[in-house]
Amino acid sequence: MENELINTEDEQQFDSKAQYTDMARKFMTMFVIQIFLICSTFKSIIIVFAARSGMAVIYFGGIVLIVNIINSIILFSLNKYDSDFGVAGLFNILSTICSFIKLFLPDNSTALLLSLLNSVFSIFYLLRFTNAMSSRLLRADASLSESWDTYRKANINILIIAIVCAVLAFISGINILAGIVAILCALADVGLLVWELVILYKSSGAMKAFAAKPDEPPSNAAPITPLVSYDNPAE
To answer: N or C: which end of the chain has fewer CB within 10 A?
Structure first.
């Protein structure tokens, strides 16, 4: 019975190490995908301004759609480690589809509805993804886990400020100030994107390092008492 318990603990430890190795590899894949998406975005912006063609916009939207579908597939594969990954993947696909369909529509009520849905799905994706990252990293690197929590709070704060600025933009007298703050929020979004890439890359490294660490004995293990030999008492 004791041997069975030891084997079970060893299997759980092995599974844990394998899980962290798998997550490290997939986080790095997501990091590479994000870098590719950023490079494609800059390239597409240049094409749009140079060609001034609607096809260039659709070309860019198609790249974003494909990349985000791949990203969501990775998130679905991580669902076995944390259900929030799978939910985040679903919201990511829904957000991307809304954004892609909107490219083919004129500026009307349907396009506005899709924009709102895109924003809502993006927020839910952010909440679920960052929560899953924070939860999975808690054991491997507590400081990185806290970084994902801070990143989520920063996104929410900037989003609230941006919404307030959008409302104030319709009020004369303070609309100019609201516009300036909105521009600052857009610049902050760029900073948040860089921040996400950095902590995503570090998260992959932390998972890999944790999986490579030698196994530690359980904290509740009984201490090993050294064998002590006693001399025979003198007669």
So the answer is: C
User: Taking the CB of residue 157, how many other CB atoms lie within 10 A of it?
Assistant: 12
Can you tell me the distance from the alpha carbon of 96 to that of 210, in angstroms, rounded to the nearest whole number?
Answer: 33
Taking residues 142-165, what's their average pLDDT? 90
**CA torsion sign, 137 to 143 to 145 to 147?**
negative
Model confidence over 65-96: pLDDT tens digits?
888 899 999 999 999 999 999 999 999 999 98
CB–CB of 76/86 below 8 Å? yes
In angstroms, rounded to a whole number, what is the distance separating the alpha carbons of residues 150 and 199? 11
* 10, two tokens: 């060893």
Chain centre distance of CA 135: 12
CA distances, 8 to each of 15, 152, 223 (Å): 11, 37, 21
- Report the percent of the chain where pLDDT is more than 90: 36
CA distance 75 to 80: 10
Task: Name the DSSP class of 234.
Answer: P
Summarize pLDDT for 31-52 with one digit per residue, the tens: 998 888 777 666 656 655 555 5
pLDDT at 99: 85
Concatenated DSSP letters for 198-222? HHHHHHHHHHHHHHHSPP---TTPP
Q: What is the DSSP letter of 50?
A: H
**Whole-structure pTM value:** 0.77
The identity of residue 225, as a single letter, is T
Element (H, E) at 223: none
